[in-house]
Amino acid sequence: MAIFPIRSPEVLPRGLQRLIAAMPESNHMVTKTNDRRIRAFLIIAAVLAFPRQASAAIAESWPLPPRRPAEAPLHPAPHDTAPGEQAEPKPSIDQACLDRLRAAGIEFEMVTLPPAPKPGCSIETPVRLKAVIFAPRWKTSIHLPDEPTLSCRFGERFGHWLRDLVAPLIAGELGVELKSVRTGPGYECRNRAEAGKISAHASGLAADVVSFELANGRTLPIKPNDDEHLRATVDAIRVAACGWFTTVLGPGSDAAHADHMHVDSLQHGSSDRYRICL
Ligand SMILES: [Zn+2]
């Protein structure tokens, strides 16, 4: 009957090793067979008598699965999934979207976000947008100094909107190139300003445009106070944005958007053609 996979007395405590070693090899009263049986009996007896020491010794010479650390927390960490709660699906990577971004001249870098602090905050193919390169006839790119973190497909739409609509409209109205756009951070794991539902920012499908900085050094804020021409230019950008995004909010929509223009591509209802532009 095999009790423990003991291969040698060396795994036993030193005192027992000495005791076994002192067994009379030349004892004329016991045969070699009896000698081996007695030694085996003593080994087994020693193991039973000193289970802890034997276990430790065996562990040194016999591979065992790793043990749970003694200091491992008994309770789940705050970000662990509670029993019965669905784990957040791991965000997938949309390689085709990344390829389109590169082909369109939209500068970005991929980012790895830490685990979402609450359910509902999940961003697909997160990218940090840095700039949108103009067509060759333009002197500069449109820079995004806030480097907003966006879902790739929203970043694609946002970049095209800046280059294909905002920049030409500003150039046509004000006769100056668009140099950069202040946007805020893009991705934010939070609820909407009016509380309740999770914000489109929590999916990386929204950006907040604060101002347009122009090549002549001037800034075109989303809420220009005294210049009617500037106000008309911003209004034209805002109205046109409703063809690019599903939600456009800004000054006059509510108190939360008094100084910036929020654009997102969250689907409202069953149709992606439904718009909320206030
Ligand atoms: Zn917003």
What does the model show?
This protein has helices at residues 14-21, 32-49, 51-61, 95-103, 152-174, 228-241; strands spanning 106-110, 126-132, 142-143, 149-151, 178-182, 206-209, 211-214, 219-221, 247-249, 261-264, 276-277. The chain is of the alpha+beta class and 278 residues long. The chain folds into two domains: 1-77, no CATH class; 95-277, no CATH class. The strands form three sheets. Strands 1, 2, 3 and 4 form a four-stranded antiparallel β-sheet that branches. A hairpin with a 4-residue loop joins strand 7 (211-214) and strand 8 (219-221). The model is unreliable at 1-13, 15-36 and 38-85 (pLDDT under 50). This is Extensin family protein.
Structural class: alpha+beta
The best one-word shape is globular
String of helices and strands:
HHHHEEEEHEEEEHEEE
How much of the sequence is in beta strands? 15-25%
How would a textbook summarize the main sheet? 4 strands, antiparallel
Helical region count? 6
How many individual β-strands?
Answer: 11
**How confident is the prediction overall: mean pLDDT?**
75
Bound molecules: zinc ion
Protein name: Extensin family protein
Region (Disordered): 61-91
Keywords: Plasmid
Domain Extensin-like C-terminal: 95-277
Question: Key features?
Answer:
278 residues; alpha+beta; 2 domains; 4-stranded antiparallel sheet; 4-stranded mixed sheet; 11 strands; 30% helix; disordered N terminus; binds zinc ion; plasmid; Extensin-like_C; Extensin family protein
